[in-house]
Amino acid sequence: MRHAQGPLLTVDLTNRTATAEPIDDVLADFPGGRGLNTRLAYDRIPFDVDPLGPENRLYLSTGPMQYSTTSYTGRMSATAVSPLTNGLCSSNAGGFLSRNFTGAGYAAVEFVGESEELLAVHVREADADGTPSVEFEPVEDLAGAEVSAVSDRFAESHDLAAENVACIGPAGENGVRFASIMTSDTRAFGRGGLGAVLGSKGIKAVTFDGDADAAIDVDWPDDAGDVHREAATSDSIMKRQGTASVTELANEVNALPSYYFSERSFEGAAGISGDRVEEKKYKKGTCSACAFACKLPTRDEATGLETEGPEFETVMAFGSNAGVDDIVDVMGANELCDELGMDTISCGDVVSMFLESEDEFGNAELVHSLVEQIAYREGVGDKLAEGVHRAHEEFGAADWSVKGLEFPGHDGRTLNGQGLAFATSNRGADHMYGEFYPYEYPLVGKEDALEPSGLDGKPPKIVAKENRNAVLDSAVICKFSRGVVTDDRLARLLDADYEDLIRMGGRVVELERAFNNARGFDRDDDTLPYVDAIDGFEAGLSEYYELRGWNDDGTVPGYADGDVPAVADD
Ligand code: SF4
Q1: pTM confidence score
Q2: Ligand 1 binding site (Cβ under 6 Å of any ligand atom)
Q3: Model confidence band, residue 278 (pLDDT cutoffs 50, 70, 90)
């Protein structure tokens, strides 16, 4: 199996040391990305860790595909114990950082400890004798700086581009539980509050630079070129509208959460649709090496507002869910979240929750003000910065989260398989973990389409999808490669048997589950605010556990005291 190359670099913020160690044994089992991070986290993070304490470890990694020039590979993976869900959480960002990360020459980098002084950590290619080259730069001048200002600073002081930088905004410094790690200015490791973890360690920014990957020569199969060609010639609507292209369909089939989840369709959907986003798009946007180019640099000529996006989930969270029907207002919230460093889904949902409590749906000015108050923990923003799960009671609102993670779109009350997938996901209510919604809209061909209501026959497909997505996240390949990176191609690109890869993906899901079990997670956490709306939910959940070989209480057998059982052959 192809895998990432190089040692693990451990950056200790308390002692300001950097050490490298080989991890060939782990790389033999996991190609990189989420799988590699998860295996390392399982072994190296104490199960009882405080997510915002010095013993939590944050991992960054790429996979083998980042040595290629193939489309759908401009991404990388981050993993830590989440301050939002309290469980192990992996998040994935696009942009251009991945190639600079591989240039620094490490398969993975972990951050541990904490610094009282705000730091930038500059990771460069190791010296010829393998000694890590890591600079710890005090950056008190960047305290409170917004994301693009951080990039500007390192362009000036270190001649680095935004594509070399991963950083946090004010939200990460202020411990907002859904703070993101931003890279390339506008791309986010968004879900689960990993920006707050970086902030708790006193890290404002990390940069990666070097040419170590130039020495890595991979004999790629023809599939690499075929994938790239098909990405370039695809006529997918996503190339024009990104994921916002699904907004009107979601609205038509009653799967667009609106007015803080009290409704599932929005009368103002036309004002925030993919067509509106396309009207504002002023140039192509992409991630490194990707010819699919589905990103959305947008501009509103009337106000001069520029941002990247909004994608569908942001349209939902700051549009329909907030009762806001003007795409420019949604763009404004998107841009604030990017600059302040926050996940647009969680932030939009918690803002919508507050609008409901104040009967202020549709008040875009208030939305923008709340986003800023949250990032700086000012006024009511201090409470909202805790997220929906911790704050809902104070505002008399329902808890629209799973495992503490706020819901995206693709409403599970309509798309019932996606509903069950929200419940089973180890990182909480996330649409890309099980990514079941394409079957149920459907966004797939007739032969793969599923009736959206009910769970008959769906648990095996949820298991299969979760496992395959764990392979993609470990490889690291973008999930928008649907239909292009086929099962056969995936196996050849990774030089592995497909069934072995799927077993590896299952092992990643299981390791996450075992880690979370050790922190007290069980069946009670695999739930939804609307279980009664899905016929056969409990039976479907039991079937899911049985298919995985787990106990009916949602725990994994064989992992007591941190043991990791061998992978079965079948
Ligand atoms: S398909 Fe879109 S999100 Fe995925 S790597 Fe390409 S440009 Fe980035």
Answers
A1: 0.97
A2: 72, 74-75, 94, 286-287, 290, 292-295, 478, 480
A3: very high
